Amino acid sequence: MELYNGERPSVFRLLGKYMRKGLYSILTQGPIPTHIAFILDGNRRFAKKHKLPEGGGHKAGFLALLNVLTYCYELGVKYATIYAFSIDNFRRKPHEVQYVMDLMLEKIEGMIMEESIINAYDICVRFVGNLKLLSEPVKTAADKIMRATANNSKCVLLIAVCYTSTDEIVHAVEESSELNSNEVCANQELEEANATGSGTVIQIENMESYSGIKLVDLEKNTYINPYPDVLIRTSGETRLSNYLLWQTTNCILDSPHALWPEIGLRHVVWAVINCQRHYSYLEKHKEYLK
Amino acid sequence: MDLKPGAGGQRVNRFVDPISYHFLQFLWRTLHLLVSLWYLQVSMVQMIEGFLISSGLVKRYGALDIDKVRYLAIVVDSEEAYQISKVIQLLKWVEDMGVKHLCLYDSKGVLKTNKKTIMESLNNAMPFEEAVEKDVLLDQKQMTVEFASSSDGKEAITRAANVLFMKYLKYAKTGVGKEEPCFTEDQMDEALKAIGYKGPEPDLLLIYGPVRCHLGFSPWRLRYTEMVHMGPLRYMNLGSLKKAIHRFTTVQQNYGT
């Protein structure tokens, strides 16, 4: 599967495609990660390095993103998550924030207009995060593409915007609290029904005592599921920057030195190979934590 | 290394085309063998470099600005954590380097179980809880050591969630609180402290184990923590430790701005 780009395939492009297929046929002899997450770090440094105009790094980064997603989906990776915009990024200079929002809007609208391409490759697009912080036009466009691709099931692209892990955890606590408070109210009504009345006691079979919010409640209410198998952060940075802190308990953290616009097939392949090397160790650790 | 066949889209059916299947399996195993040889070569270079740094032959790592490491965390693979003598040696190096606050983590709690043995082996260290109780966290004379396991991660956050939830129910009953629960990150911080989780966010997290993975260290405490993979505990050396800390002291974070 390739992302359509409107050009007639050249000889080199066809050769590249078949070489990739050959490589994938070798890699798929081992377990392929179900979910790869990316932190798109280094766009601004790339622009500085190549003396590009403002925003040039982000544009180059978007092209790199399309390539990387192509490689993932060709390889059989079902879920890809990208960290597009952090809540912390709102502290950048206003014109820079606006540029990123405008670029996001432009790219989302581009995907909507070429809807048949998204549907042709069966990609379900989901925006995750505190979407209330998005400007109205971006939010509307995001809602539109999510509705348009809701029934696609082959691959899933999760785009984390206005996202931080700590905000996600607090959100999960809020959702769990709301669900549990309904349960508490329902139990109280039953208790009151038992206590009142003309001496008639209503027997409720299997009435369980209320035990509070459980870990599984929080797990269900995080924005991003399933959890990634490998997280790639470019630019050689070794921190998570408040991204997927909850979901990376059993996730390999990979930090190639390449800036995001420089990321290529070799980085994706290297991450998959490392995943295969440590597959049984991480599966064992997951079982222990269950 | 796991060598189970995968379930990718281009899997060759071993019964339909056995020659292709076996040939691809051979290529896959050869690829992984080459990668393993590559990692072996990298480990040997790192060991030699570590030895040179430990001997003081590499001047660059002579003086470390250890004050930049306000809080260090060490994650150890639980199977390797049974090598208590290695863990003690590592902590002695950390103590000698002047680190003041340390958190030791392994997911199964092996290090917690051996807390007494570990603390008795250190010259001048105090358990973190005792330092908090005596309010001597800012005292630079002793190294404080916190022991953590997986129960101090997501499960602790769940307990803190229940603290917030009970407060919400209380306000909801009195009719004072909002209709829908609405919490802040500061409230979550307070709830964790209220149930005894007062450990701060580490500046640097060193991972001793086969994989670069934090293995369930508290998600609430990892926002901007630099994570460095040090390799298996049995190959640890002072030089690699110095190099990791030196590299950390040169990192500049912009915290998303």
Automatic annotation (TrEMBL), chain A:
This is Alkyl transferase. It is an enzyme of class 2 (transferase). It holds the Pfam family Prenyltransf. One of its GO terms (biological process) is polyprenol biosynthetic process. Keywords: Transferase. Its EC number is 2.5.1.-. SUPFAM superfamilies: Undecaprenyl diphosphate synthase. Belongs to the UPP synthase family. The keyword Secreted does not apply. InterPro entries: UPP_synth-like, UPP_synth-like_CS, UPP_synth-like_sf. GO terms for molecular function: ditrans,polycis-polyprenyl diphosphate synthase [(2E,6E)-farnesyl diphosphate specific] activity. The gene is HbcisPT2. One of its GO terms (cellular component) is endoplasmic reticulum.
UniProtKB/TrEMBL annotation, chain B:
It is an enzyme of class 2 (transferase). Pathway: Protein modification; protein glycosylation. InterPro entries: Nus1/NgBR, UPP_synth-like_sf. Its cofactor is Mg(2+). It is found in: Endoplasmic reticulum membrane. It catalyses: n isopentenyl diphosphate + (2E,6E)-farnesyl diphosphate = a di-trans,poly-cis-polyprenyl diphosphate + n diphosphate. Its EC number is 2.5.1.87. The keyword Transmembrane applies. Keywords: Endoplasmic reticulum, Magnesium, Membrane, Transferase, Transmembrane, Transmembrane helix. Its main location: endoplasmic reticulum. Belongs to the UPP synthase family. PANTHER family: DEHYDRODOLICHYL DIPHOSPHATE SYNTHASE COMPLEX SUBUNIT NUS1. This is ditrans,polycis-polyprenyl diphosphate synthase [(2E,6E)-farnesyldiphosphate specific].
